[in-house]
Structures are given as structure tokens and as C-alpha cells.
Design brief:
Elements (H helix, E strand, L loop, with lengths): L1 H11 L10 H11 L3 H8 L23 E7 L9 E2 L4 E2 L1 H5 L2 E4 L9 E9 L2 E8 L5 H12 L4 E14 L4 E15 L20 H25 L1
Parallel strand pairs: 2-8, 3-8, 4-8
Antiparallel strand pairs: 1-6, 4-5, 5-6, 7-8
Helix pairs in contact: 1-3, 2-3
Length: 231
């Protein structure tokens, strides 16, 4: 029973819609938690919750509001499930052909935007989202909450490819994964998966954003050289 409850907690608190397990993984999960494979199937294939509290509104963003925001979407650190997702092992090949951004991993709803850039910077997977605020009320609500500073989290939705249990830590090490989507979320599984600092609702073009990122990289490199010289 204890293992059954542990498995339920894992899926109910972060291992639901964000991790898309393959059928060949079910038996491995069942053995590890000491439950029947039917229990795993029931948890893995359960229907995601419907979004609530988001009535149709007709909200339209002003033409000069900022619609593009940069996020760290995976940082390789131990997350709230005691798991580690290797950033170097995240395959974005398929994702780049369909760069979908969702809200809270709700694949049953419409996407709220698309990634205009994605890549590893400083050992972290970073992405820029362009929100579809003109087309979708939810996207405008998300934009307004980001601009307000109330919505800051991000999370990746992925398919495990190569992984193993980490008994010592009580979690899973995901060595290789395939990125399916990433989401703006209320509470990220990885505490460090957050919006890049210093962003507001003010408009910023993709050109300005890339210039901003280059400037940050130069400052970071200058600091590294100063630290090396002090040793």
C-alpha cells in the first residue's frame, strides 16, 4: 500500500501531463513501486484536468504590449519530485518542427503561443515564447499575469527515452528525453525554471531580446575573467 501511495503522489504532483511515458516503461515503473502494471496504466493514462475559471472574455491586448518573454525551461537541478532531467540529453529536434507552448501542460486546450528560439545557454535550456494574445483570450490573460509579476514559472513536457531510478535520492534520473512541449505554469517542477529577470509588459522585439541576451553573455564572460584573474 505504501508503494501504491508513493506512486500516486508522484503522478498527482507533477508526473501527470508533463511526462509522456512509453508503454515499454509501464512494467519498469510497476516493478520499482511494487504495484500491478494496471495501476501504472490507470495513473499514466488518466485524463488531464480541464482548465477552470477562464471564461470567455473578448480581451484584446494593446498593440504596443510586450508579447515575447524569455524563460529558463529546464536547469538540470534536482526538482520537486527528486528527479533530474539532463539538459544535455533533451532532444529538441522534433519540437522545433512544432514549437508549441501550452499553459499548465493542458494539451486538451489550444496553445497559448510558440517558441521563437530555444537552446542551451550556460548549461540551462532557455526559450522565448511569443504569446498569441490577438487570437486567444487565455494567452492575453497569461501575458497580463506575467506583466503583473504573478506568473513566472515554466515546465517541460517530454517523453523519457533513457532513464533509471535513483534509489539514493528517491527520484528518477532522465538521461535522454524528447521534448514535446513546454508550458508556462503556476508552479514549476524545477524551482529554477522561471522567467528571465527584468521583463515587464513593455514591448520588446525579437531583435532587442537577442541583443539583451548577447549583452548578458558578455557581462557573464567578463565576470568569469575577473574571477579567474583574482585566483
Amino acid at each position: 500500500m505504501a508503494n501504491h501511495l508513493a506512486l500516486q503522489r508522484r503522478f498527482l504532483h507533477g508526473h501527470g501531463p508533463r511526462i509522456h511515458w512509453r508503454e515499454q516503461d509501464y512494467a519498469k515503473l510497476a516493478r520499482a513501486y511494487g504495484v500491478g502494471e494496471d495501476v501504472v496504466v490507470k495513473l499514466v493514462q488518466r485524463e488531464p484536468e480541464q482548465e477552470i475559471g477562464l471564461p470567455a472574455g473578448g480581451i484584446k491586448a494593446a498593440g504596443d504590449v510586450r508579447k515575447a518573454f524569455g524563460f529558463t525551461i529546464s536547469d538540470g537541478a534536482v526538482d520537486r519530485m527528486n528527479d533530474i532531467v539532463s539538459v544535455a540529453g533533451i532532444d529538441t529536434t522534433a519540437y522545433r518542427r512544432n514549437p508549441t507552448v501550452l499553459f499548465n501542460h493542458n494539451a486538451r486546450g489550444l496553445p497559448i503561443g510558440r517558441s521563437t528560439s530555444i537552446g542551451i545557454v550556460g548549461g540551462k535550456l532557455k526559450a522565448t515564447v511569443e504569446l498569441a494574445v490577438e487570437a486567444l483570450d487565455l494567452a492575453e490573460r497569461v501575458r497580463a499575469l506575467i506583466a503583473h509579476g504573478s506568473l513566472k514559472g515554466a515546465s517541460i513536457g517530454f517523453m523519457p527515452v533513457r532513464w533509471n531510478f535513483n534509489r539514493e535520492r528517491g527520484g528518477i534520473d532522465f538521461h535522454e528525453t524528447s521534448l514535446l512541449e513546454w508550458s508556462i505554469v503556476t508552479t514549476p517542477a524545477a524551482p529554477g525554471a522561471l522567467i528571465e529577470p527584468g521583463q515587464t509588459g513593455k514591448a520588446m522585439s525579437e531583435h532587442d531580446w537577442r541583443a539583451h541576451e548577447r549583452s548578458k553573455a558578455r557581462r557573464r564572460r567578463a565576470l568569469e575573467l575577473i574571477q579567474l584573474g583574482a585566483r
